[in-house]
Model the fold of this input.
Amino acid sequence: MLQLVLTGVLYLILVIPVGRYLYHIAAGKHTFADPVLDRIDDVIYKIVGVDPHRGMNWRQYALALIGTNAVMIAIGYLILRIQSIGIFNPNHIGSMEPSLAFNTIISFMTNTNLQHYSGESGLSYLSQMLVITFMMFVSASTGYAACIAFIRGLAGKTKDNVGNFFVDLVRVTTRVLLPFSIVGGLLLVWQGVPQNLTGNLVVDTIEGTKQLRWALWQRWRLLSTWEPTAVASLEQTPPHQLRTPRLSLTSLNCIL
Done:
């Protein structure tokens, strides 16, 4: 209950200033971060050849959105299909099969984030960085841009200019998503959350084995209660009678 109350209070405190900040970004008005971020935006516009002062009608805006997403989907799909190469893949994870790669890239591009693969055991570090993390950024930016263009159209100030898709995409990324992610990353570093590019570690357990056929929920119960009789009973339980899939002890230790 306390968590719900704190969440509600935090929402009420932030909703007005954050809403105004997003409005200023969408309307192209001045924000406190412009002196620094405008320079970054200009570099991006020059690299991709975009004129930030050129508006688009709704057809041009829609084509820019669809075309940009199509290119990112193609590149992301290709990376998932060839992730078995030795770049940032210390765990030697194989490439995704075609249907799974297509499902993954489409789900992250549409911001639904369906994960039919086996978590980090199904993705190389390269795929996690260049596909999953990247798509979680640009899919949110694309959704924001589409929403803003729709609102501009409803406002009806001009039918021939609903903004510039590339400007909307860049501005929300550099002014909202990247700053929030940097702050969140620093908080995780402060709390000691590990993050590196080394391979998985194999742990030898006190039982003298590298694999233990225990269900995860039963592992939690034994760790919390530490009942010797429960341990003995669990070890004698046939595999097919456990309610959840058996996991390796390495996986359990990493999770716990």
User: Anything to note?
Assistant: The first helix runs from residue 2 to 27. Residues 211-256 have pLDDT under 50 and may be disordered. Residues 34-190 form one domain. The chain has three domains: 1-31, 34-190, 216-255.
